[in-house]
Specification:
eight-stranded parallel sheet
Length: about 450
């Protein structure tokens, strides 16, 4: 499936499937086993479930490749079967679809922590995702979905991996709470801005809670999205039954009623997560009959957006920016000395002084004896954690700009310290690839 084909299909309402894990448990899968292995050993159970979803109206089903990455499979002693499992799981879903629904290759968080909280580097994480994505793309999925994410940086890693492996459409959903943030503190609006900047074809939420708890998160996603918004919530809140099984407190009809509110709020790709069954999808399918989607925003003609993981900052195209004192390693030896000791006191002091008067913080880490790209990323990450202002990288190094845009977890502007004519090739292409604006040498902010 091409991105254009997905875009055309998503002009109407698309229905996803419902839960996989909770239904497999009801159909005989024991608790605590590797789902990917169990499904491979009991393919008819999965196939029947997905056939039921399709019969109830699902346009897209998720191949059960959810945790088929090397980290998760290694925990079960199944690393050597990674290719076999991923390709076999896709084949089960392709057989179930019978050409009646699209099959999405499903990937999620690895369970390993990125540095500095853990030992996993961003580049290593991208490689881990690329390894699994190559396998499920080879197996013949129609599109990819990155789901049940809590970390924006890990979501970015999966999306970048997908971009490097294939040209398939990419959907991405995070698990937001009622406060419109993930457990990692990522805001819905920041996720929308950052991920559509990376070129995802739809963005949204899944899991977390029932549709009645997700209305504000959907509204925020819609307000900042130029791509279709996905809503795939749980069947209400979980509770333990008398026999100590997990149940959810919302029935299929009630679920559909609340999903209608999410549709009215602007979500146009709808499905169910934990606790939902084919009956839930059937009720949603009945609800959407005769209904239309809320038109998505046209791509930003009226505002330019920058973002950290928590906040979004809006500017008018061509706006003249107020830029305070440059956080510049080439003219401030204290910045260099502190960075070499992994300290950022002077950079933060400069930033705090500018917080009330500047529109944006400008960073330049070009200095003798400093690895410019790594210093720029380190300073940017420290500032983003502590200061409520957007960031701009000033550099005349293509390598530095490329490195920082690839690794930074938000969206920052870039300023190329040369004449406009020199932006036409690599700089403009790079800016478009990450959805970032450029600040001219006259301090005007523009999209390419």
């Amino acid at each position: 499936m091409t991105k254009q084909e997905f875009k055309e299909a998503a002009e109407g309402i698309l229905l996803l499937d419902g839960a996989t894990g909770s239904n497999l448990l009801k159909r005989g899968m024991p608790y605590g086993v590797c789902t990917e292995l169990w499904v491979t050993e009991h393919p008819q159970v999965m196939k029947q479930l997905q056939e039921e979803y399709i019969s109830q109206g699902s346009n897209i089903i998720y191949a059960p490749t959810f945790s088929g990455n090397r980290i998760k499979l290694k925990e079960y002693g199944l690393l050597e079967r990674m290719e076999e499992l991923n390709q076999g799981l896709v084949e089960i879903s392709r057989e179930a679809s019978g050409g009646k629904a699209l099959v999405a290759g499903d990937i999620t968080m690895t369970g390993a922590q990125l540095a500095p909280l853990g030992n996993l580097s961003f580049d290593e994480l991208v490689d881990i995702y690329k390894e699994q994505i190559r396998l499920i793309v080879k197996a013949g999925v129609d599109l990819l979905v990155v789901e049940t994410m809590m970390s924006l940086q890990e979501t970015r890693a999966a999306v970048l991996a997908a971009r490097e492996v294939c040209d398939l459409p990419i959907m991405a959903t995070l698990s937001f709470q009622e406060n419109k943030k993930t457990l990692y503190g990522v805001s819905a609006k920041a996720a929308a801005v950052v991920l559509q900047g990376l070129g995802v074809d739809a963005v949204g939420l899944n899991c977390s809670a029932g549709p009645d708890k997700m209305i504000e998160a959907v509204k925020e996603l819609v307000s900042f999205s130029c791509v279709p918004v996905i809503a795939k919530p749980n069947a209400g809140m979980p509770k333990l039954s008398k026999d100590h099984n997990t149940e959810y407190d919302m029935d299929a009809k009630t679920f559909a009623v609340h999903m209608e509110a999410l549709l009215d709020a602007g979500a146009s790709i709808l499905g169910g997560c934990c606790g939902s069954t084919p009956e839930f999808i059937g009720n949603v399918a009945e609800m959407v009959k005769g209904k239309h989607t809320v038109p998505a925003r046209k791509h930003e003609a009226d505002r330019i957006l920058l973002a950290s993981e928590r906040e979004v900052f809006a500017f008018v195209p061509g706006q003249k920016l107020s830029i305070g004192e440059l956080i510049d390693f080439s003219v401030n030896e204290e910045l260099v000395e502190e960075y070499q000791e992994e300290l950022f006191d002077t950079a933060l002091d400069l930033a705090f002084d500018m917080e009330e008067e500047a529109d944006i913080l400008r960073i330049c880490t070009s200095a003798e004896g400093v690895a410019e790209e790594k210093a720029a990323l380190a300073v940017a990450e420290e500032l983003a954690r502590n200061v409520n202002l957007p960031l701009m990288l000033a550099s005349d190094s293509l390598d530095t700009i490329s490195y920082v845009l690839y690794h930074y977890s938000g969206i920052m502007a870039i300023q190329w310290n040369h004449n406009l004519e020199e932006w036409e090739t690599q700089i403009k292409s790079m800016a478009k690839s990450y959805g970032v604006p450029i600040v001219t040498i006259d301090n005007e902010i523009i999209y390419c």
